[in-house]
Design goal:
The chain is α+β, with helices and mostly antiparallel strands. The protein has 3 helices and 8 strands; from the N terminus they run αββαβββαβββ. It has a 6-stranded antiparallel sheet. The chain has a two-stranded antiparallel ribbon with strand order 1-2. α1 crosses α2. The radius of gyration is 23 Å and the shape is elongated. The N and C termini lie far apart (about 70 Å).
Length: about 190
């Protein structure tokens, strides 16, 4: 009974560690996709907003060009969705990943799940399957904040969220990865 409880407790404590490792794998995969797709965006910072000033050169209004911002959002989401489709259709080994049509199979050495650094990367591999759900969300976040004396900070960023399904012998769980990519960060004089 005591051995059974110990084994049960060990399996329960391994599930969060697997989730952390798989979250890192999804983040790595997501960053690869983002780097490739964001480099393809073509925009001029000054076209994304307009600043209106009065006669004393004080800012009266800052308007964001929602048409261009929505175009950036749609373009980036479409590019990332195409990258997700390409990943799901690729086959081959890359960074301990074996890609099949619907799943990415990972082999995690048992030593990675234990709290001992000397065992890291050693031991038999635990097979974990990762399925990237076509659940990619994004939004444009715009902010204008006071920044020092008589200045304001204009920031425009692209916030993205990806969901993946992790399946292992210890259970199933979903992993969400979020990232924010700054498109514009500019300090303007004359608040």
């Amino acid at each position: 009974l005591i051995i059974g409880l110990f084994i049960y407790h060990s399996f329960i404590s391994l599930q969060p560690r697997i989730k952390v490792i798989m979250t890192q794998c999804v983040e790595e995969l997501f960053q690869e996709m983002i780097t490739d797709s964001i480099n393809q965006l073509d925009y001029q910072e000054d076209e994304l907003y307009t600043i209106e000033r009065d006669k004393e050169h004080v800012i009266t209004d800052i308007d964001f060009n929602t048409l261009k911002l929505n175009h950036i959002l749609i373009t980036s989401l479409n590019t990332l969705n195409q990258s997700l489709d390409e990943i799901s259709q690729q086959e081959g080994i890359r960074h301990q990943r074996i890609r099949s049509k619907d799943w990415i199979d990972y082999g995690i050495p048992i030593g990675n799940l234990l709290p001992f650094y000397s065992l890291y990367g050693k031991g038999k591999e635990l097979n974990v399957r990762l399925q990237i759900l076509q659940n990619l969300n994004g939004e444009i976040i715009t902010k204008v904040e006071p920044y020092g004396i008589n200045t304001s900070m204009i920031s425009i960023s692209l916030a993205l969220q990806l969901t993946a399904h992790v399946d292992s012998c210890l259970g199933k769980t979903d992993v969400q990865v979020e990232t924010s990519i700054p498109l514009v960060m500019k300090v303007v004089q004359g608040s």
